[in-house]
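Last lecture ended with a question: if I hand you only a sequence, what can you say about the shape of the protein? Today we answer it with a concrete record. The protein is Sarcosine dehydrogenase, mitochondrial. Below, first the input exactly as provided, then the predicted structure, then a couple of comments.
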Amino acid sequence: MGIRVRTDDFGVRRVAAVETEHGAVQTPCVVNCAGVWADAVGRMAGVKVPLVAMHHAYVVTERIEGIQNMPNVRDHDASVYLRLQGDALSVGGYEPNPIFWEEVSDKFAFGLFDLDWDVFTQHIEGAVNRVPVLEKTGVKSTVCGPESFTPDHKPLMGEAPELRGFFLGCGFNSAGMMLGGGCGQELAHWIVHGRPEKDMYGYDIRRFHHSLTDHRRWIRERSHESYAKNYAVVFPHDEPLAGRNMRTDPLHEELLARGCVFQERHGWERPGWFNPGGAAPVLPYDYYGAYGHQAHQDHAYNQLLGAEYTFDFPPHHEVIRQECLACRGAAAVFDMSYFGKFYLVGVDARKAADWLFSADVSRPPGSTVYTCMLNARGGTESDLTVSRLAPGPEASPLAPAFEGDAFYLAVGGAVAQHNWSHITSVLQDQQFRCQLIDSSEDLGMISIQGPASRAILQEVLDADLSNEAFPFSTHKLVRAAGHLVRAMRLSFVGELGWELHIPGPSCVPVYQAVMAAGAKHGLVNAGYRAIDSLSIEKGYRHWHADLRPDDSPLEAGLAFTCKLKSTIPFLGREALQRQRAAGLRRRLVCFTVDEKVPMFGLEAIWRDGQVVGHVRRADFGFTIDKTIAYGYIRDPSGGPVSPDFVKSGDYSLERMGVTYPAQAHLKSPFDPDNKRVKGIY
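The predicted structure:
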């Protein structure tokens, strides 16, 4: 038994056949739907499948008089469910101490385990508390079997990054019956057409970084926490406690000492916000006190998270406000080292760049371009910056040795694996002769943004930072406090500013030099909570929030990233041309709400008394002092959504059953003329 893999002429591993005891079945495609055995099936082909096997159980009660019309019930506090089964109830739940099936047996099939009442009794107690009659009702049958659970309690789907033609359809976290129909349909479309029809990123195996998908401790800790918290209320700013500190950048200790409260993305620890109350390190995972672990008594990080368990403005709202206003009024430094940093080099690098990127990146070396990458249906697989490099014979962390053309790609760190896999698949499908080199771990990156950024950096960098010498959207190799760095004049917050891409060993001295130079200018540390607010105020997109694989750049207001005026073919071009000719059926619109009320996404958008869409992304804009929300709207009559249609409506946004009047904007309400990034204050 096994899966035969071949390596094609371009060095790409592909599925060739399935070996059985009755001979081989030739096939270019295998789908792994093996449940708790999916890991073993993956290993046959060298594919990593991040899931664990656990005992999962429910019991069925004896008949209960008068229960027939009871709805299905979930009790989030007790972490139990009660489901009608004829004239009885089935009762189950998610306990903090599930039993791991340590040695998954390949001899086990269609069997059950004995129920461990020591573990299950907590669910009976929770159910009795909710439905008291259960105390006097017997148990007719128990069901306890093996089930697979994943690090985020969502299925594993899509093509494995390690092997072309090997698809996953496993890890359904005891929701297989519920999800199977829709997931099966999307997976079929994925296999036949290369991508699913709907946005399936939340289930795509590429949401996990490849360094984590075979890390046993990380998989076990995260799968445990996701299981135990399955019925916990999902709060907007929660973070996992399991599997932390897997990937830390060179500035981690430095920022921790300055009160940084970290967020976890893609295994990286990235700055969330800075706590004036001092250091709040993330401690090793305590399994919430299960399995004989001692639960942490005094965990400052967990206490800060717990204080934010609210759907109101968080208690740290004012701290984040200060970070934002310092960036707008003076300057802030953001550690963005978690970004994905790739080099695209080789004979066909320029051809590949023309095909991959929606914008024209064939500009002179020294230029940096903001662009999208699309799929064949014109949906947005990524937005990123692409910098054209000048050829150099000497390889360094800031540029590999290459001849011909080379491009440096900077992508959001939380989606680096998705980007890497998308680019790699396209290069393979088009048979471009080029290489993608991952330097994400070798380079750090800090971004200094705000009206004082030029004055600060002029003291640290050995380059002229004037508009004439260093215009917006360009990059140069310069020295920062004696260390070679790549400086890029870009902004993700809508201010004058530069990113410094720095070899790992130079990160701390360069950061310290920037902080020292910035002291007299009011420079502050700031994190991603501030970036979220500042960027939505400026109208910049976040991939997978207001920009997804089922959104086109035309609908998202990013037509300027598409080289449709040129004749250069690019992936997704035909779909965009068809869409433009037919008229846009939906459009991303910015809304502001005057009333001081927080929004988080998924709020309904009302126009003239009809629901026309929902909010994709929302945050509070501290500079304009309003809640800002972005969402795609449709015309209920089915026609195209024109700018006039957007402007002519009367809008409100519905949050938790209450509607709030809202203003629609076609341009970002903050600095609509884009003066600040040009240094005009």
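Comments.
1. The mean pLDDT is 97.
2. Residues 372 and 383 are 4 Å apart (CA to CA).
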